[in-house]
Each structure stands twice: as structure tokens, then as C-alpha cells.
Amino acid sequence: MHNLQMVDLKGQYQKIKPEIDAAIQKVIDSTAFIKGEDVGAFGNELAAYLGVKHAIPCGNGTDALQIILMALGLQPGDEVITPSFTYMATVEVLTLLRLTPVFVDVNAETFTMDIDSLKPAITPKTKAIIPVHLYGQSADMEPLLEFAAAHDIHVIEDNAQAIGSNYTFSDGRTVKTGTMGIASSTSFFPSKTLGCYGDGGAMFTNDDALAEKLQMIANHGQRTRYVHELVGCNSRLDSIQAAVLRVKLRYLDDYCLARRTAADFYDAAFSEYEHIVTPRRASYSDHVFYAYTILLRNVNRDELRKELSAKGIPTQLHYPLPCHRQPVIASLGLPEYKLPVTDMLQDCMLSLPMHTELSNEELAYICDNLIALTNR
User: Fold this and answer.
1) Residue 266 is inside which H or E element, if any?
2) What Cα–Cα distance (Å) separates residue 135 from each residue in 128, 233, 260?
3) pLDDT tier, 320 (very low <50, low <70, confident <90, very high otherwise)
4) What is the Cα–Cα distance from 337 to 325, expressed in whole angstroms?
5) Mean pLDDT over the full length of the chain
6) Whole-number percent of the chain with pLDDT over 70
7) How far apart are CA 322 and CA 306, in angstroms?
8) Angle, nearest 10°, between helix axes 37-50 and 239-249?
9) pLDDT per position as a tens digit, 272-288
10) Does residue 125 contact residue 280 with C-beta atoms inside 8 Å?
11) Is the pTM here over 0.90, yes or no?
12) Does domain 253-374 correspond to CATH entry 3.90.1150.10?
């Protein structure tokens, strides 16, 4: 068995090479590398796919979240609630804007924000909640949205890992993740389900006035060239990345299906082994499996990773040190947090290879070795 990849971008590219190459060449021929026609077209096509009024491309997913917070007018000292079990970028933008992060725990089965942990975290200073749609699955948005509305608090979705996923409300209504809060952000980092060939991101909203403000902030705070009305930044999706994403957007549902199919294989293979706990798929959300992350019971994870690596099987830790335990957060003087589920997960989670090109032969090789090594 050849060395496996956590994400096989080369194999994915080879399948759509003629379309990608033609799209890139068209941009090169036009020399419209910044604000070319592909950028606006991609934004429109992505908005149509998601069923949201405005999709505003930008430089990356971190910028997207920061720009949203700037546009909403949050002030230094305002509190923003977020799960600690997420990538640090979610929290990084809060500290950059001198907002106060308030950490809550996650559900032990879905790994997304726990509504029971959220409720006691609300204070008069709470201005926003950032649920993270983790690993490709939506947070449970309906009770969260109802609770936030009752307290007049903004909900900003971090949709960096779950674009393409659907959320179903109790009345049967189904919507795409990233379309439920006042605004949402996403990332097009190459390994994402919809990834470009560099950095990229986007912001989504159904609010016309907010959309205009997001566009202005991302473009140096200007509506008209050389007239700067707001403090802004320079965050642009370049034309080549937009061209790549326009092609890949047409395959997004296929990519989601391929990842679910691989996850089905893993689930079936591990179903009878008590040392391996497979991801729970929530009834309210379909899962696009940005990551396939298992929970290990009574297994030396570090030793297992070494043994798998020796057999050419890569693994990854999402996330070995949660945000509330990061050194930079300790310097902020925040209260001591007790997040038992988050602390438990950091020690026993393990992500396996997950991408659109996994073959049954590769999946069987991974599963057979993992089962053998955890059941000795």
C-alpha cells in the first residue's frame, strides 16, 4: 500500500484538470488578477447554492470572521461566547479586536456547542455567540437561535468546516449551514470540502445593510474609490482562486457525498469495536465530514499514531490543546474554565484520512490496521 494522504488534493485535481486549467488560463489571459469577473460570479453562484442573499468573497476565513465582528460594531470589552474546542482562529480575531472571549463546553457526542453550557455564560456584556459547525456537522442551531433572539444577541456562524451541510428545523424546514445567523464566515483553505489552491474565504448574510458594510470593510473601508468611510482592511479573494472555486463549486455536492461514503465505510468497519467510538451524526444535520474524527477508549494514542505512521497511515489531532488552555489566552487574565467534555476530548480524539479520493482498498487498509492495533 502506497503512503496515504490525509487529503489527496492532487488526485482530486487530476479528475477536473481540464476545467481547472482552462479557468486559470482564462484569468491569466485577461490579466484581471484582482477583482476580475470570476470573483463577482463566484460570489453570486455561491449565494445561489446556499440560498442566501449575499456571499462576499474575501482573503481567508479568519479575515471573514474579523470583518463580520467589525461590521457589527462590537466594542472592546464586549463578550463573545464560543466553544473552546475549535481551531484558534475563531478566538484569535476576538483578541485582535480586544473583545472578551467567553468559553463554553461542547456536546460529548456531536462536539458542537452545548446549549446547556451556553445559557449560564450569558451576562449583560454578551453581544454575540459564535457556534462552530465542527468537522462538517452543524451545531444545533434552532434552540441556540431562539435563546439568542430572546436576549437580543447576534449569532455569527463559523462555517469554515461545514459548507454544503444542511440543518433541519423541527418544522421540517431545511437550510444550508452559514445562512441562519446574522452573518457567517467560511474558509476555502485547500483541505476544506470546498477548497481553493491557496487562501480564500467568504462572508454570508441576508441583511442588505450589513452586506454593504462587509464589502466596504474588506476593501479598505471604501464604497467609492479613494473615499474611505470606515476603518477597513485589505482582504480580497484573487481572481485565480475564484476561478478555481467556480469549477469546484459545481462538484461540491459530489464531494460531500464521497466523504459521506468514506465515513460510512469507517462506521461499518469500526461498529463492533469498543475501543473505537465513531462520530455521531445528529438527527438535525447531515454531515459533510471535513474530518473523520474518532474517540479512542483505553488506547495509547501517541503510540498508536507512531505505529500507524510506520505503516504509511497518517493521522491528525483536532485539537490537542483547546483554546482556553492556549498560552496566549492565559495572558488575558480570564477566569479559570471548567470544561469537562472539552478537556476529555483533547486527550482521546484522532482524525483519520478523509477526502474525496479514498478508495475501498485504502479504507480497508486503514481500518484493518487500526482495528488490529487497538485490539491487541
Assistant:
1) helix 252-270
2) 22, 29, 12
3) very high
4) 9
5) 97
6) 99
7) 22
8) 30
9) 999 999 999 999 999 99
10) no
11) yes
12) yes
